[in-house]
Design goal:
alpha+beta, five-stranded antiparallel β-sheet, 4 helices, 5 strands, globular, binds guanosine-5'-monophosphate
């Protein structure tokens, strides 16, 4: 059983299909390097996904293989989206799940942007 975020890029993953316009999304922002859209199953009042346009399976893959322009463009896009949504003053949380222990489900690198409420402290482990 393959671990999402590890191994070769799968062009049939759901975010690849969103990037190709094969399935719809509630788009918030798009530029040369990134696409931002609402998560289909929001975990906070505001839950946005920001993805790079390149074929990267995870944060680790993007950090290792992303071009300087892609990495800078992606980080700036995340910041821009947060500002555009009015989150700079109240604050927000960024999160990227990586691989098995990170709980990654979709094998295309993405950052979750949560906001719109006090989010509490960090993460909790699932109960045994
Ligand atoms: P992961 O666990 O990989 O970090 O998170 C994947 C996220 O993608 C989940 O929060 C899930 O709700 C979201 N997601 C999965 N499929 C779709 C989809 O088709 N459209 C949108 N907008 N979000 C999706």
């Amino acid at each position: 059983m393959p671990v999402p975020g590890v191994g070769d890029y799968d062009d049939q993953n759901v975010f690849a299909k969103i990037l190709r316009g094969e399935i719809p999304c509630r788009r918030i922002y798009e530029d040369l390097h990134a696409l931002a859209f609402h998560d289909i199953a929001p975990q906070a009042p505001l839950h946005v996904l920001v993805i790079p346009k390149g074929r990267y399976v995870s944060f680790a893959d993007f950090a290792a293989k992303g071009g300087e322009d892609e990495i800078a463009g992606f980080v700036r896009a995340v910041g821009h989206v947060a500002s555009q949504l009015g989150l700079d003053a109240p604050g927000y949380r960024l999160l990227s799940n990586m691989g098995r222990d990170g709980g990654q489900e979709v094998p295309h690198f993405h950052v979750h942007l949560f906001g719109g409420a006090m989010l509490g402290r960090m993460v909790s482990l699932p109960s045994a």
